[in-house]
Design goal:
By secondary structure, this protein is an all-alpha fold. It has one domain. Helix content is about 80%, strand content about 0%. It has helices spanning about 1-10, 15-40, 50-60, 65-80, 85-105, 115-140, 145-165, 170-190, 195-219.
Length: about 220
């Protein structure tokens, strides 16, 4: 009977083995999270390259090239709208139409200042910020914290650029919100543990920053 007790007590993995297995699972999860976030970032395609090229061509007095880049940016932005919903969808569709109209004006030589381009670009970036905020919220509510992190980083980038293109100086609170979003996004993208309350608070603050800039640009 004693031998039977010993045999039963020895069945199954030891606590140390269990801890090692759990650590391995956690490590694998972090690797998968980083991989998922990396795929989102590496697949990142933005209108920014097209907008920068359009601005450069315009300043070089090459209206034909500038107009082409603007048309391409409009097509890209409209494609983004197809995968968006609600306010983000409307904002992207509106920006796509505005970029297309700007292309026509540039072709006709009707744009006399680069500031006209910058104003349109600011609204385009703001629309992109809405879009990535929407996607960050959806990703965080779902199973992909890594994607939520990648979307937070892109949200911060677009909001930062929108403020700059609008010719505004970011307030201290806006600078902090953008920096916090980037830092938290990086942690999530790397599969690091974060407090859910911190993510929710950051999403709320960034949503408010986007809304505030939208109101300022309308004014």
């Amino acid at each position: 009977m004693a031998l039977l007790v010993v045999a039963v007590a020895g069945c199954g993995p030891s606590d140390e083995t269990k801890r090692a297995a759990e650590s391995a699972v956690a490590a694998a999860a972090r690797v998968n999270a980083r991989t998922a976030a990396g795929e989102v970032i590496s697949a990142r395609r933005e209108a920014q390259v097209l907008l920068d090229s359009a601005r450069t061509a315009y300043l070089a007095d090459n209206c034909t090239a500038a107009a082409k880049e603007l048309r391409d940016a409009a097509a890209f932005t409209l494609a983004q709208a197809d995968s968006a919903t609600g306010a983000a969808k409307d904002a992207l569709a509106s920006s796509a139409a505005e970029l297309d109209r700007l292309s026509t004006r540039v072709t006709r030589g009707a744009v006399t200042s680069v500031k006209t381009l910058d104003s349109v670009f600011a609204r385009t970036h703001l629309a992109e910020a809405r879009y990535h905020h929407e996607r960050a919220v959806v990703a965080w509510r779902g199973p992909s914290g890594a994607q939520a992190g990648a979307e937070l980083i892109m949200l911060a980038d677009h909001l930062d650029r929108a403020i700059s293109d609008a010719g505004q100086v970011a307030s201290d609170s806006s600078k902090k919100a953008i920096a916090d979003a980037r830092a938290l996004g990086s942690k999530l993208a790397q599969g690091a543990a974060v407090l859910p309350a911190d993510v929710q608070a950051t999403l709320t603050v960034m949503g408010r920053e986007v809304a505030n800039l939208a109101a300022a640009l309308k004014g």
